[in-house]
Design goal:
single chain, alpha/beta, Leucine-rich repeat, LRR (right-handed beta-alpha superhelix), 6-stranded parallel beta sheet, 6 helices, 6 strands, globular, leucine-rich repeat, repeat, NLR
Amino acid sequence: MLQYDCLFWGCLREYISLAVQHAVILKQCNILRLDHNYITSESINILDNSLHNDNTLIGSMLYANRLSDKGAELLAEILNRNTTLIILWLDCNCISDEDVRFIANTLVHHNTTVQELCLKKNKLIGSLSVSYFIDIFQHNQSLTQLDMSNCSFKEEANQRLQDILN
C-alpha cells in the first residue's frame, strides 16, 4: 500500500478541523501528521468524529502537541473503536503514567490493530508505567514497535523492562 502523509505543522487551533477534514474526510492521505500544534480535547473529538466514517487513515502522528491527560484518555477511547490505525506517535507531549494506564488498558483488552506506538520524550512517563508496559508486552499480539526512550524511568524500572524483553 502506498503511504501518503499529510503534514500540518504549527496550525492554529481554529485550523485543526480544516486539516482533519482535508486529510481524513476527503481521504487525501493515510497518515495524518499534526506535529507542533496545540491539540486540545476538542481537536481530538474532531479527529474521532472524522475517523468514524474513515477506513483509509492508518497512522496518526501527534508529535509535540502538549497533549495531556484528557487528550490521551480520548485517544485511548478512539483506539477502543478504531480498527484501521496501525501507527500512533505521541512523542514529546505531556503524556503521564496515568495516560499510559489508559492506553495500555486499550491495547491489552480492546485494540488489536496498532502495530507501532511511539511515546518517547514524554518526561511525565516514569517508573509507575513499567507494569503497564509489561502488560502490553505480555498480552498484546499486534504491537511490534514500542518506543519509550527518553522518558523518566529510574534504573530499577529500566532493568525490569530489560528483563521482560530478554
